[in-house]
Write a structure and sequence with these properties.
Elements lengths: L1 H9 L8 H23 L10 E11 L4 E10 L5 H4 L6 E12 L2 E13 L5 E6 L11 E5 L6
Antiparallel strand pairs: 1-2, 1-6, 2-5, 3-4, 3-6, 4-5
Length: 151
């Protein structure tokens, strides 16, 4: 270590490394090498692919004093104009939520709806659900499925 320190003073490009650090570096190199050998043998597992667009439930369609619970407003990720929103018309919407009571071995439940039309010029859309969305869902995420497709 003293020789290394002496050489550091003369040339600042050399870094001081303890014996313990050298051992850990050697161990990491062995792990990396063994990992590379395993990768050649094993097939790569694919990451799950998200088959829906993300959205947020904004609330009911409303005027100053009236609210229309049978029409829900949704903000879709990446949709900023009325023209962009047109692609989503007719697509299925799922509001997935968690309930206390387990039904069919799952605590997750789904309310299904359909995107109907645009609402304004900023990419918000109107959707109609089979049952009206409860107000506790306002601000909650929803999934806009990529079907039925018109492509």
């Amino acid at each position: 270590l003293a020789q290394v320190w002496h050489s550091v003073r003369n040339s600042p490009s050399i870094v001081i490394v303890s014996a313990r650090d050298l051992e850990t570096m050697a161990g990491e190199k062995k792990q990396i090498a063994s990992g590379a050998a395993k990768k050649k043998v094993e097939k790569k597992t694919k990451q799950p692919v998200r088959l829906y667009a993300k959205g947020v439930i904004l609330g009911y369609k409303r005027s100053k004093s009236n609210s229309y619970a049978n029409c829900t407003l949704l903000k879709l990720d990446g949709v900023r104009t009325r023209e962009d929103a047109a692609w989503y018309f007719g697509k299925r919407v799922a509001y997935v939520y968690k309930a206390k009571k387990e039904v069919k071995n799952s605590k997750f439940r789904v309310m299904w709806g359909k995107v109907r039309r645009a609402h304004g010029n900023s990419g918000v859309v109107r959707a109609k659900f089979r049952k009206n969305i409860p107000p506790r869902a306002f601000g909650a995420p929803c999934r806009i499925m990529m079907y039925p497709s018109s492509i």
